[in-house]
Amino acid sequence: MTISKDINIQKNSLDEVSFDREGIKSKLLNLDRPCYVFKVGKQIGIANRDINNERSSEAELLLQLPPLPPQQLGDANFRTFHGVKYAYVAGAMASGISSEELVIALGREKILSSFGAGGLQPSRTEAAIHRIQL
Predict the structure, then answer these.
(1) 119: exposed, middle or buried (C-beta count within 10 Å: 0-12, 13-18, 19+)?
(2) For residue 21, is it left (φ>0), alpha (ψ between -120 and 50) or beta?
(3) Are strands 89-91 and 112-114 parallel, antiparallel or unpaired?
(4) What DSSP line would sit under the chain, residue for residue?
(5) Interstrand relation of 89-91 and 59-65 (parallel, antiparallel or unpaired)
(6) Is the pTM of this model over 0.70?
(7) What's the maximum distance between 2 C-alpha atoms anywhere in the chain?
(8) Which residues is 36 bridged to in the sheet?
(9) Which residue has the higher pLDDT, 5 or 18?
C-alpha cells in the first residue's frame, strides 16, 4: 500500500512541472510564487513549488528562485522617496492622451504618474491640474 502511495505522490508532483513553452512561460510570469527549475530525465522543466519535498526522485532540483512580486521590482529608495507602492512611472502622453482619469486612478493605487500637457492650451492644462488635485 505504501509503495503505490509513493508512486502516486511522484506522478502528481511531476504533473506540476511544465516542460512546454506556454507552461514554462505561465510559471515564470507567476511572480508571487517561487520558481523551481528541475531536470527530469533529459528535459528541463519549471514548477512553482518544490516537488522534491514529496520524494519525487525522478526530478533533480537545478535552481530555486524566491517570489518576486511587482512591489519589489525597481529601487526601494525610489518607492520610499515618492511614497509609492511600485517603482513605475506612468502617464505623460502629450495632448492629454493619458487623461486626468488615468492619473487619478494611478495615484489612488500609489503609482507615480503625470499628465502630459504638451500641446494643450494653458486653460485646458489648468483645468486638468485642478481636477487631478481634488
Answers:
(1) exposed
(2) alpha
(3) parallel
(4) -HHHHHHHHHHHHHHT-B-SHHHHHHHHH-TTS-EEEEEETTEEEEESS-GGGGT-TTEEEEEEE----GGGSS-HHHHHHHT-SSS-EEE--GGGTS-HHHHHHHHHTT-EEE---TT--HHHHHHHHHHHH-
(5) unpaired
(6) no
(7) 80
(8) 47, 64
(9) 18
